[in-house]
Write a structure and sequence with these properties.
The protein is an alpha/beta fold. It has a domain of about 240 residues: 3-Layer(aba) Sandwich (Rossmann fold), CATH 3.40.50.1100. About 45% of the residues lie in helices and about 10% in strands. Strand 4, helix 6 and strand 5 form a beta-alpha-beta unit. It is globular, with a radius of gyration of 21 Å.
Length: about 475
C-alpha cells in the first residue's frame, strides 16, 4: 500500500484549552461538529469544553444523592464519539505517529477493547488515515458494534463478556504476527494515562475553582472517584493530588468481579470497567481505597434516571429539579451510574460535609445501552412508579458501606503484585520493568512527557 499524508491533531494543551488552537482550525472544527461528524477536523473537538470554552459538568442535586457533600460529574456526551475514551485513543495514536512507529497506508491499527476505547479507535484511526480493527468481547452491546462499523473500522468478536480480557490479549497477540498490524493496547499505553492525567485532571481542578465562585464547596477537591477499565481515567486523581495534597483517589470495581478488592474474578455487565486484571498504566500506589458496586444496581439506577416512571418519582416524590432530570437522562450510562453510587458511598464512608466536593466522570451515555436495557427489562420486568420509589430508596439513598477496602501500605503492595501475573507471565514484560514502577519517579517521568509530546507535535505540524 502506498503511504498517505500524515494527519495531525491537537496537542494535550489544546485538548485542555481548545481556545489555544489556531483560530481558522478551531472554526473549521466547530463547523464540522455540526455538519460533518466524520471529518478529520473533529479531532480538534476532543476536549472537555463546549464551543464557548466552558467545561461540561453538572453538580448532582442532593435530593438525588441523599448526602451533604457536593458530587460534581464531568461528562463526555459531547466528545466526537460521545465518550471521553476518544481522547485516549487519539493520544496513543498521535504519540506512535510522532515516534514514526505507525504510518497510514502501511499499517493496520488494532485496538483491543471492551467498549468505548474500541469505538474511539474506530473513530480516530480512519480520521488519521489508518485501516483500523477493533477487538471486542462478543457480549458487548449491539450499539457498540454498529458504531464501530459506522466510523469506518472493522471488528473481531472474542468469547465472553466485559471481564474476558485475556481472550482479547490472545487474539491481539495472534494479529501481532502480521508485520503490518500495530497493536495499540489501552491497558499498557501511557498516552491513555497522560490524556487523563493532564486533560481530565486539570479540567476537574478548573471546575473546583468555578464551583467556589458559585458558593459550592471550599474550592478544593476532596476525592476523585473512578471505576477502572484500562485505568486511564483514574490517572486524573494523581494530577488532583498534586494540587490538593489531601484529596483521595477512590477506585471502583463491580461486586461481581472484585479483582483488586480481594483477587476476585467473574463476569459482570458494567460495560467499560472491571477487566479482571491490574493494568500496566495503573499507579495503584496513588489509590487510597477500592470500593465495589453491584452491576444490577447500576443498571436499575440507570433505568430510574432514563425512564418516565423514574422521572415522575424523582420530580414529584423527591423534588429533584426537572432540569437536572433532563440532564441526567442525556449524560448517564451504566458506568456513569456506577461512579455516582461509588461517590455517594465515598461521601458516607468518609463523612464528608457540605464544604466537601467529590468529582467523578460520566464516561458515556444511554444511547450505547438501549439493547442491553431492553433485555434487562425482560428479565426484571418493567419499572413502574412503585418500583422506581423502591430503587430510589435502596440504590441511591440506601447506598451501603460494604465492599470497601482502604489503601494501607500492605494493601497497595498486594494490588501492585497482581500486575506480575498478567504482564510478566503473560504479556512479555520483565520483572525489572515491573519493579521500576514502584518508584514514584517512574510516574513523574510519564507525566512529564506531556510537554515533550506537545513540542514534537507542534514541530511536526509547523504551527
Amino acid at each position: 500500500m502506498a503511504a498517505k499524508q500524515l494527519v495531525y491533531g491537537p496537542t494535550f494543551e489544546e485538548m485542555l484549552h481548545p481556545g489555544k488552537i489556531r483560530k481558522d482550525v478551531r472554526a473549521k472544527a466547530l463547523e464540522t461538529a455540526r455538519t460533518d461528524p466524520l471529518s478529520e477536523y473533529n479531532l480538534f473537538n476532543i476536549t472537555w469544553r463546549n464551543p464557548e470554552g466552558n467545561i461540561y459538568y453538572t453538580v448532582l442535586p442532593k435530593e438525588l444523592t441523599g448526602v451533604d457533600a457536593n458530587i460534581a460529574v464531568i461528562y463526555s456526551k459531547d466528545f466526537p464519539t460521545r465518550s471521553h475514551k476518544v481522547g485516549a485513543t487519539y493520544s496513543i495514536c498521535m504519540e506512535h505517529q510522532l515516534r514514526g512507529e505507525i504510518e497510514p497506508g502501511k499499517h493496520t491499527l488494532v485496538w483491543p477493547s471492551t467498549g468505548n476505547y474500541g469505538i474511539g479507535g474506530a473513530y480516530v484511526g480512519p480520521r488519521m488515515g489508518f485501516d483500523s480493527m477493533v477487538i471486542l468481547p462478543e457480549l458487548m452491546s449491539r450499539e457498540r458494534f454498529e458504531q464501530i462499523e459506522w466510523f469506518g473500522a472493522r471488528y473481531i468478536k472474542t468469547p465472553g463478556c466485559e471481564s474476558n480480557v485475556k481472550e482479547i490479549y490472545d487474539r491481539a497477540n495472534e494479529l501481532r504476527e502480521d508485520p503490518k498490524n500495530r497493536i495499540l493496547n489501552q491497558f499498557e499505553e501511557f498516552g491513555n494515562y497522560r490524556f487523563h492525567y493532564y486533560c481530565t485532571g486539570n479540567s476537574c481542578i478548573e471546575v473546583a475553582d468555578e464551583l467556589k465562585e458559585r458558593g459550592i464547596g471550599d474550592g478544593t477537591i476532596s476525592a476523585f472517584v473512578s471505576a477502572m477499565g484500562s485505568a486511564g481515567t483514574i490517572a486524573a486523581g494523581e494530577r488532583i493530588k498534586h494540587e490538593y495534597r489531601d484529596a483521595l483517589t477512590i477506585g471502583v470495581e463491580p461486586i461481581q468481579c472484585p479483582t483488586i478488592y480481594w483477587n476476585g474474578y467473574g463476569g459482570h455487565d458494567i460495560q467499560g470497567i472491571g477487566d479482571k486484571h491490574v493494568t500496566w498504566i495503573h499507579n495503584v500506589f496513588a489509590m487510597d481505597a477500592i470500593m465495589c458496586v453491584d452491576d444490577i444496581e447500576s443498571k436499575k439506577g440507570l433505568q430510574l434516571l432514563t425512564e418516565e416512571a423514574g422521572w415522575k418519582v424523582l420530580s414529584d416524590r423527591y423534588g429533584v429539579p426537572e432540569e437536572s432530570i433532563r440532564e441526567l437522562n442525556e449524560i448517564m450510562g451504566i458506568s456513569g451510574v456506577c461512579n455516582v453510587l461509588a461517590s455517594i458511598k465515598t461521601a458516607k464512608f468518609y463523612r464528608m460535609g457540605a464544604d466537601k466536593t467529590i468529582f467523578t466522570v460520566a464516561t458515556d451515555t444511554m444511547d450505547r445501552y438501549r439493547s442491553v436495557m431492553e433485555e434487562f427489562s425482560k428479565t426484571y420486568g418493567p419499572m413502574d412508579e412503585m418500583e422506581a420509589m423502591a430503587r430510589m430508596a435502596s440504590i441511591f439513598h440506601g447506598v451501603k458501606l460494604d465492599w470497601i477496602r482502604e489503601g494501607t501500605q500492605h494493601a497497595k503492595q498486594c494490588w501492585f503484585n497482581l500486575k506480575y501475573y498478567t504482564w510478566v507471565e503473560q504479556q512479555g514484560k520483565t520483572v525489572e520493568e515491573l519493579d521500576a514502577q514502584r518508584d514514584p519517579a517512574y510516574w513523574v517521568a510519564q507525566q512529564a512527557k506531556v510537554e515533550e509530546t506537545d513540542r514534537l507535535l507542534r514541530e511536526a505540524r509547523g504551527w
